[in-house]
Amino acid sequence: MQTILIQLDTDNQASIFDRVVAIDSGVAQIFSCAAVTPETVTSLVHGAIFTRGPADLKHTAIFIGGSSAAAGEALQKKVLKAFFGPLRVSVMMDSNGCNTTAAAAIATARKHMPLTSVPATVLGATGPVGLRAAELLAAEGAHVTLVSRTQERAKAAAETIRERVPQAIVVAGAAADAQENEALCQGAEVVVAAGAAGACLLSQGALQRLSGLKLAIDLNAVPPLGLADVSANDKGVTHHGVLCYGALGVGGLKMKVHRQCVASLFEASDRVLDTQAIYEVARRTAGITT
Q: Which domain holds residue 89?
């Protein structure tokens, strides 16, 4: 029986990127649906679960994508609500690559150092990737400072993480420019830059000025880069005594995680690959055993 991945995309055009990765993950057939909303998704889900018997539903899976992580999460809730009894299929949500990118970034950090009680700063922490990176750092026990352009957004993000990770130690910070970002990174051992494409968050020479910094990860590959001292191709390269990873340096692990997650959807009919589940795949892929 052929594997079928049903791509539910919240954008007006379904992502070509996600379709290519699905093919590279071994999926036989991809059914792509664009402009999907919570109001229109139930009939699509029923089409997925009523066409094969319960024992064969593991050969069907749903991938939720699009450019908005918030829209993707709303869609996921509605998809899961449409299942009942044994009539369900596995689901993965990775709108705009938010979960796989964040998982790869934090697994990269964890590969180099234990994160328990480590002070960490996430720049661009209220974006889709930054929020999830901060959540994963908090789940690993790091003490996380979330930085956004407004204090209100940073506080809301911190509260969201506390709801998802009850033991989280997170504080909110606001920064309007690179100089203010740098001030909020003082004392951090880990810095993750997850800002918008083309936004420089730490200027040239900042890594040298940040005493105690051990690891810096920049997830922006569009010039100007998020961390001016870090190249997009950096993969475990040391600059000013700081171990550095650029977006393309993290990208190899991100792609491996994405492909492995899609392939694993067809191992059972009841998997839900969300932020934490995808992170576990990233940890295993990175060789983290503790």
A: 4-97+255-285
How high is the pLDDT of residue 83? 98
- Say how far apart CA 53 and CA 86 lie, in whole Å: 9
Query: Which residues contact residue 136 at a Cβ distance below 8 angstroms, ignoring those fewer than 6 apart?
Result: 102, 103, 106, 275, 276, 279
Q: Is residue 116 part of a domain?
A: yes
One domain for residues 238 and 259: no
Whether this model's pTM surpasses 0.90: yes
Residue 10 is assigned to a structural domain of this protein: yes
Q: How far is CA 113 from the centre of its chain?
A: 20
Token pair for 69:
């992580």
Residue 77: which of 68, 61, 64 has the closest Cα?
Answer: 64
Residue 290 in any domain: the answer is no
Do 9 and 60 fall into the same domain? yes
> Could you report the per-residue pLDDT of 65-84, keeping only the tens digit for each?
999 999 999 999 999 999 99
Which amino acid is located at 113 in the chain?
M
The per-residue pLDDT for 197 is: 87
